[in-house]
Amino acid sequence: MTALNRIPIAERDVQEEKLPLLQVRGLRTCFESHYGSVTAVNELDLTVYPGEVLALVGESGCGKSVTAMSLMRLVEAPGRIESGQISFDGRDLLTLSTQEMTELRGAEIAMIFQQPKGSLNPVKRIGSQIAEQFERRRGMPHAKAWKLAVGLLERVGIPGAAEKAKAYPHQLSGGQAQRVMTAIALALEPRLLIADEPTTALDVTVQAQILRLLTERCRSHQTALILVTHDLGVVAQVADRVAVMYAGRIVEEAPVETLFANPSHPYTRGLLNAIPRGNHYSESRLEEIPGTVPVLGRNPEGCGFADRCQASYAGRLNQCSTQTPPTTRIAQGHTTRCWIYHSGDAQ
Fold first, then answer.
1. Among the listed ranges 30-34, 169-173, 339-343, which one has the minimum average pLDDT value?
2. What phi and psi values does residue 54 have, to the nearest 5 degrees?
3. Apex CA 166: angle with CA 165 and CA 172, to 5°?
4. Which CATH number fits the domain 1-108+190-288, given the four candidates 1.10.760.10, 3.40.220.10, 3.40.50.300, 3.40.30.10?
5. Where along the chain do its domains lie?
């Protein structure tokens, strides 16, 4: 399978010649539960460069949203970031004070949340919620800030933006609320944008509009975008690189064309095999990955995917069920966590 009809993004230098905007090393986020301390994000490493789109993909429950909230330092009790480093433009976010982190959010790092209505102030007009970004952070007079807010609503595809700016969140549809959250996130032109399922509630026309808006922002402002999604069709359109997440770990990472053409991890193969192809919708049954993502607190020993793995070598190696596979480099920019590659027995 290849990534077709991609939304064009900026020409980029070789990544090795660029300084990363975000480097995450050994990130571990845990939650207290009746099982004790359980790990939602486990020794996660990520690198994101200016002007690129990194897609973070996987099934629900794999740890994608917890990763996004960890990067924003918005994990609340009973959760906590237990260890690791989140370096943004050379600053370790985990060492910043609460006030310093508050000042950074919105201005330099912004997030489009998965549940937009829960993130909007229910007693403020949506235009005011956008305008206050300019008023508080830029010292802009209200009239000018309001005008910019209406302009942003127009850019994200809100019809009748001037009137809709006067509406309250409860008067919006789910798709409109998602577009408002996108406008708020883009308002201050952040250098890093984290989008958690930003197009889930949108119809296909508006979805394409939002994706184009986000990728154009990457091109024109060298904004880095981490796109959290389960939609591999969206990934094929917009991503430069893809990190596949399972049971709190990155199990494969590769340039998007490489991942679609030559997936290495059995979980990645399963995700790609579950995508409808061409016109084969009515007669054939889509392939599926048996079983479910491990429940937090009940992560199996060894490879977290071993019990669901349908590859021909599954269970053949004793390490699969007893030891966690290390990250193995199999090609330039392409890594995987699978014992078959680490053992040199790839098929």
1. 339-343
2. -105, 120
3. 70
4. 3.40.50.300
5. 1-108+190-288, 120-185
| Tokens (6 digits) for 39 | 């790990």
pTM of the model: 0.89
Separation CA 63–CA 299 (nearest Å): 13
Structure-token pair, residue 239: 């991503």
Q: How far apart are CA 83 and CA 159, in angstroms?
A: 45
The token pair that represents 134 in the structure block:
């300019």
Output the six-digit token pair for 89: 């433009």
Q: What is the pLDDT of residue 317?
A: 67
Contact 227, 23 (CB under 8 A): no
Least confident among 10-19, 120-129, 206-215: 10-19
**Residue recorded with tokens 């394409």:** 208
pLDDT digits (tens, 9 = 90+) for 259-294: 999 999 999 999 998 887 655 444 556 677 877 887
Spatial CA neighbour of 155 closest among 115, 204, 196, 214:
214
What the block records as the tokens of 179 is 């577009």
Bigger pLDDT: 217 or 254? 254
